[in-house]
Amino acid sequence: MTKTYKTYIKRFFIMLFILLLLVAAWWYGAKPIIAKLRADIIAENEIATVKKGTIETTFKGSGTITAKQDVKVTSKPSGIVQAIYVKEGDFVKKDQKVALIKPGRNEFEDYKPLPIYAPASGIVVKCLNQDDYDKDFSDRDLSLPRLGTFLTGSYDDAERATCLLRLVDMDTLIIPMYVTEMQIMQLKKGMEADVKINALGEHKPLKGKITYISSQMEKSGRWGDSSSFMVLTEMPRSGENILLGINASISVVTEKRENTLIIPANALFEKEGKSYVFKYLGDNKTQLTEIEPGLSNDQEVEVLNGLQENDRVLTELPYGESW
Q1: Which of 115, 126, 201, 291 could be stapled to 306 by a disulfide with Cβ–Cβ 3.0 to 4.6 Å?
Q2: Do residues 239 and 245 lie in contact, with contact meaning Cβ atoms separated by under 8 Å?
Q3: Is 44-55+258-314 a CATH 2.40.50.140 domain?
Q4: Which of 83-87, 121-125, 225-229, 232-236 shows the lowest per-residue confidence on average (mean pLDDT)?
């Protein structure tokens, strides 16, 4: 065999090998890509199975924790504080004597000192007015009023009187929220609520209940001049280290359906007021199918008519479909 002949044979096998590589690259690489672009192939991750399950719609809101009972203790007559019998953090019972005031503007006015009684049971907390919040922390007076402090009293309007102290019941907490007119229609008094306290970290949600829904709009204080509806969620403290003023997130199941057909939300396509899915028939073929949707949330949609359990639907538009 001549050297030239051997060279031709070698080149032939080299070219054959290259040709086989090109065929393999086409068959396993370029062809599937082109087929995919032409919608000849539908990937499994683009197909979802219609299943029976439970679907819920949920309201989510947030608010700042306050005490259900926060009573402002004041004096009826104006006068000078002569004695205080409690300190911040003490628990006092209703009608317990908490302070003594001498009516008049100075000690020379000859009026008999009068006791101030607790109007409710609770924990003693200092009064803070707006001026205190505006001050630097080092300038705030965090103690109860000193002896000799003059208190403005009122016999008929406690809001006009100087606050001596507050009585807070920490056993039951309230979370006020402002909601829109669309949200208020989802909520009802007595609904159960999951309460997540951010400050508690990875803590299971606490249980609360909606106890109040306002019947008219009011200034929310959160969006300037906008008006919203007030909703109160009540929950027991249950021994948790929950302090007043911290933030809480509220989650309320507003509607729930069980043992119903469900598809992913991204499998639903809408056009001209109608709802459709692309039902997968196998062999990379689909059928546009009109359905009747029911309850829906961000992830799932209930199907009332048009599909059966174990049907398969696309979660993406087929190639060439304009929607």
Answers
A1: 291
A2: no
A3: no
A4: 225-229
CATH number of 71-169: 2.40.50.100
For 182, the 3-state DSSP assignment is: helix
Q: Which CATH class is domain 59-66+171-256?
A: mainly beta
Residue 200: helix, strand or coil by DSSP?
helix
In tens, the pLDDT along 26-60 reads 556 654 555 455 556 788 899 999 999 999 999 99
Assign residue 133 a region (left: φ > 0; alpha: ψ between -120 and 50; beta: otherwise): alpha
Query: In this structure, what is the dihedral angle of CA atoms 111, 113, 119, 121, given to the nearest 10 degrees?
Result: 170
The residues, ordered by sequence, that sit 6+ positions from 59 with a Cβ below 8 Å of its Cβ are 179, 183, 186, 187, 250, 251, 252, 254
Give 127-183 pLDDT, tens digit per residue: 876 555 455 545 555 578 888 889 999 988 888 899 999 999 888 999 999 999 889
